[in-house]
Amino acid sequence: MSIAAQKSDPPAWRALLGYVRPHRWALLGGASLSLLTGATGLMLPLVARDLIDDLSDDRAITGALVLMSALVMANAALGALGSYVLRRTAESVVLGARRSLSSYLLRLRITAVDRSEPGDLMARITSDTTLLREVTTDSLVGLGTGGLTLIATLALMGFVDPVLLGVTLAVIVGAGAVLTLIVPHISRAGRRAQDAVGVMGASLERVLGALRTVKASGAEPREERALHEAAEESWRQSVRAAKWSAAAGNTAGLAMQVAFITVLAVGGARVATGAIDVGTLVAFLLFVFYLMMPIQSVVGAITRYRTGSAALDRIQEAMRLPAEPVAGPAVLPAPGAAPAALAFEDVRFRYADDLPYVHHGVTFTVPARGMTAFVGPSGAGKTTVFSLIERFYEPDSGTITLDGRELADWELSRLRSSIGYVEQDAPVLSGSLRDNLLLGNREADDDEVARVVKTTRLDGLVAKLPEGLDTLVGHRGTKLSGGERQRVAIARALLRSPRLLLLDEATSQLDAVNEAALRDTVADVARTTTVLVVAHRLSTVTTADRIVVMDAGRVRAVGTHRELVTADPLYAELAATQFLAAGG
Ligand SMILES: Nc1ncnc2c1ncn2[C@@H]1O[C@H](COP(=O)(O)OP(=O)(O)OP(=O)(O)O)[C@@H](O)[C@H]1O
Q1: What is the per-residue pLDDT for 406?
Q2: What is the radius of gyration, based on Cα positions, of the chain?
Q3: How far is the CA of 35 from the centre of ligand 1 (A)?
Q4: Is the ipTM value over 0.95, yes or no?
Q5: Which residues are in the ABC transmembrane type-1 domain (predicted)?
Q6: Taking Cα atoms as reference points, which of 378, 423, 341 lies closest to residue 550?
Q7: CATH class of the domain comprising 12-319
Q8: What is the DSSP secondary structure assignment for residue 355, as one 8-state letter?
Q9: So what's the architecture of 425-494 in CATH?
Q10: Pocket around ligand 1: residues whose beta carbon is below 6 Å from it?
């Protein structure tokens, strides 16, 4: 996984504030309720003391009892409300992060996706965002309420005896120095634990995405080991983080005990010299005791923030991957819209700076309407032509124009809405058959769907499925055959009434009858639309209006089948040896 942190990354707390800002008032409300709960709790002993005084002085205790009951009720009610408000706010922060991250991931550039593991990206949305929950409530609120209580207690201590306050502060500063050494270990271990969860997500995605192949290859034990290793690495790092967190918590506890003893010793000496009286010393020691709670809460907040900040860093890294601009909903071309004309002019392209060029100056023109077939040996760069037209990638040099206008000048959603694209492996998404057909055009009505289902010869399939178009097709369409998936992909593209249809022909999977039918359908579409086909069948190339022969990233010839068979030796060889199904 190469989503790496950059030196210039802003600190995690700034990102956290970004997520929390929309919920600041709810968070403040929850924190105030927590403070109020604490205050009602602190008042209870005072009222109890009054009640005991009343009892010993033979006074009526009804008033004190009523007050105590009211305080107990208020404490419980405020506590429950405060905790609900805080948890709800924390969940809203998680929701906000999940929403923005998932929207962002849908806009990722394909180059970024090429460099990422989908399983790791999934872990960032699911697991890492969950950690924001604790960071929001425990860290932010703990730091706020604990910090306020700490300041108030220290102020009162300074009021009682500044010298003893100095002693206490010296101990606290010493403990703080130790904590600054411990805290980075918590961050590091937290980061590694979350990275290991990402690795596990990636391994899971790899296995589940190809479970049949894994089983058929007998690779379960090896894949199981990889999954377990990732789980164990996460465990190891989480345990390491727990160890350092425990050390931090105990350092705080130890510091308070050291402060207690030091205050006792220095305070005793001051009592002996008459600088303070015993009452002052006792009151101060009580304050040292009370100091424990806010200090624990502040240290807890810091340690939890450090674990959570690792998750925040991972979320921010994903949010910095290159993405496409935000676009409004795409407007599909009206049925009967003019077909598109396309031109490549000296296009050079490579998938990454450290990879060799795939296109070395590709030039061809495709007029509006008609079918153009791309042929050539495997790896010649045919599918890459389609990827560049869809602007999944940008060429390094040269120009690509659609209707005479450079692709870079097109609004991306508008460009893509003009195109119907059928990928070679014809992906089908989990959901119903209808969902899949309407993926590219939600607006298509039942008549249009029925027509396209018929032209792509899916009507037989629909009739035999238990729930027709509403039958679920399984994860990645596993309940469909390869040929059916391909026809679904073609039907989906046709429902968009594209001005340019890109068809990356599968190398197999269609039986002769369906192939002939689809060839007729595509030929029919080519009468009104511009169709580009990466062709693997003789029947396709013989019906094409023109054929572009590609070899090693260059266009070596353009012509019809008849012309090329005699004019281009490579084409003649391909026609004789490589094209599938000779039914032309
Ligand atoms: N996402 C990618 N990242 C890096 N290299 C890639 C990527 N996609 C394709 N390539 C490389 O680019 C070259 C051209 O690939 P392309 O898919 O365009 O070939 P093709 O002519 O369509 O081949 P085939 O007929 O086998 O589908 C190949 O060498 C391939 O390995």
Answers
A1: 94
A2: 35
A3: 62
A4: yes
A5: 28-307
A6: 378
A7: mainly alpha
A8: S
A9: 3-Layer(aba) Sandwich (3.40)
A10: 114, 351, 355, 358, 376, 378-384, 534
